[in-house]
Specification:
The protein is an alpha/beta fold. Helix content is 40%, strand content 21%. It has a 7-stranded mixed β-sheet, with helices on both faces. Strands 9-8-7-10-11-21 form a 6-stranded mixed β-sheet, with helices on both faces. The protein has a 3-stranded antiparallel β-sheet with strand order 5-6-22. The structure holds NADPH dihydro-nicotinamide-adenine-dinucleotide phosphate (NDP).
Length: 481
């Protein structure tokens, strides 16, 4: 299967005629190809988006919302096809794609359709002197760049608010997992989204992504991906003063206090450590457990980790599939070796699973891995690994856990496990992270601000924050004297 770019409502081959291979990570085999788009493809997509902006930006919100609702319906009607594609492309368990990724993609469109319909603006009346009101207008062509771990969910998290606000967009999905973005293109056509309103360019970040970021007719960039790439994008966007939203990496602390509901903490920590093979920016990759319950927590956590089934993503029994690519597996394995060199002790995992069927033997599988005895300044404690690897450390007093959590240069999310609400509120306010979960994990409400502190990003999206980002706000002052 050869994917095509979506430009001006039509699927077109890349200008260069060259393609990149796309792998099925469970079988380590090429199963499709995607355009290796160059500068010209991006320029054509931006031209199409610019042309479409004239009409889309003044299309009444009711009409825009109606199309977004239709897209949400079509995603749900195609749930099975999209889930299968996402599972094969990423290696994530089909059951997970069915239950989380695809429904959340539909929810993104439905939520922002409703949000824009119900949006209200402020006005002030200055005692007979002036009436002020705030006028919101779309910014223009938005460049949307997304990563490989939650491909459809994270791309639609950007497309939906951008279109709801009246912008047109050029998307650059990850070259590693392009399939559901391509299928979304078909859905956009079926939903009668006007040509050029949403364009999708496949290819390499260093070529297609960079050109999009640098293009002078793209005044706004929303990027989700790694911190190093985010830094490059910030540098490229700065001279043109582009609006920029950066959702970057995380090294999230998961803090278990002695009064926690241990059973719940263990069960949720298994998910927060290893869901999607640990390839979620919100995964809690550093677990800190209060000394008093350390042994009890660890006994349960390690034995439950050993029960997790790693295997064919299509199999209902699989909790984990393969990592996304050979290069990524190698990076994660190197991090594990380095942790051992730095004194870390592997309590479980660190190897490929045994007993895989013949067709999966070359796949990029790794058992969930738990590492103890590392110092706070070890590489594994400081750097994002983005795989099924967690470190565990005991602590004596709660303030020590907060200090450890905050030593990271990242500040995306954290989890706290305690039955003491006073303590929970106090610690939540002290932790440097964009989201702090108490006795839960990955519970998302799209109305709430989402984003990271420190090296985890810049800006907030979600609810009104997305409206803020995807519009320019203007104060109109009418003199009344
Ligand atoms: P990357 O930063 O490697 O890539 C993200 C996207 O940027 C891809 O589409 C990539 O293209 C593109 N890109 C690469 N270089 C450039 C460039 N110079 N200019 C413009 N675009 C470029 O991230 P990954 O895809 O590896 O995703 C994993 C990372 O994403 C992790 O660090 C994770 O924490 C983070 N992430 C953050 C989230 C958050 O909400 N904070 C959520 C999910 C993930 P290509 O694929 O071709 O390289």
């Amino acid at each position: 299967m050869q994917l095509k770019n979506l430009i001006n409502g039509e699927f077109v081959a890349p200008q260069s005629g060259t393609y990149l291979d796309n792998y099925d990570p469970a079988r380590a085999e090429v199963y499709s190809q995607l355009p290796d788009s160059n500068e010209l493809d991006v320029v054509l997509a931006v031209q199409a988006a610019n042309k479409a902006f004239t009409k889309w930006s003044v299309t009444p919100v009711e009409a825009r919302a109606q199309i977004l609702y239709r897209i949400a319906d079509l995603i749900e009607e195609n749930l099975e096809k999209l889930a299968e594609a996402e599972s094969r492309d990423v290696g994530k368990p089909l059951a997970l794609a069915r239950k989380v990724d695809i429904p959340r993609a539909a929810q993104n469109f439905r939520f922002f359709a409703g949000q824009i319909l119900h949006h209200q603006e402020a006005s002030t009346y200055a005692e007979g002197k002036a009436l002020n009101y705030s006028l919101r207008q779309p910014v223009g062509v938005a460049g949307l760049i997304s990563p490989w771990n939650l491909p459809l969910y994270l791309l639609t998290w950007k497309i939906a608010p951008a279109l709801a606000c009246g912008n047109t967009v050029v998307c650059k999905p990850s070259e590693v997992t392009p399939m559901t973005a391509f299928l979304l293109g078909e859905i956009l056509q079926q939903a009668n989204l006007p040509p050029g309103v949403c364009n999708i360019i496949f290819g390499r970040g260093e070529v297609a992504g960079r050109t999009l970021v640098e293009h002078p007719a793209v005044p706004l960039i929303s990027f989700t991906g790694g911190t190093d790439t985010g830094a490059k994008i910030a540098l490229a966007a700065a001279p043109q003063f582009k609006k920029l939203s950066l959702e970057l990496g995380g090294k999230n602390a998961n803090i278990v206090l002695k009064d926690a509901d241990l059973k719940k903490a263990v069960q949720t920590s298994l998910r927060s450590s290893f869901l999607n093979q640990g390839q979620i920016c919100l995964c809690g990759s550093r677990i800190y457990v209060q000394q008093d319950v350390y042994d009890a927590f660890m006994d349960q956590f390690v034995s439950e980790t050993e029960k997790l089934v790693v295997g064919d993503p299509k199999d209902e029994k699989s909790f984990m599939g393969p990592l996304v690519s050979a290069a990524h597996l190698e990076k994660v394995q190197q991090a594990i070796s380095q942790a051992q060199q730095e004194g870390g002790k592997i309590l479980t995992g660190g190897q490929a699973p045994e007993g895989l069927p013949e067709e999966l033997k070359s796949g990029y599988f790794l058992r969930p891995t738990v590492i103890a005895d590392l110092s706070q300044c070890s590489t594994l404690h400081q750097e994002e690994i983005f795989g099924p690897v967690v470190t565990v450390q005991p602590f004596k007093y709660a303030h020590e856990a907060v200090k450890a959590a905050n030593t990271s240069s990242y500040g995306l999310a954290a989890s706290l496990w305690t039955q003491n609400l006073t303590q929970a509120h106090k610690l939540a306010s002290q932790i440097q992270a964009g989201t702090v979960w108490v006795n839960t994990w990955m519970n998302r409400d799209l109305r709430m601000p989402f984003g990271g502190m420190k090296s985890s990003g810049l800006g907030r999206e979600g609810g009104e924050h997305s409206i803020d980002f995807f519009t320019e706000q203007k104060t109109v002052c009418v003199g009344l004297e």
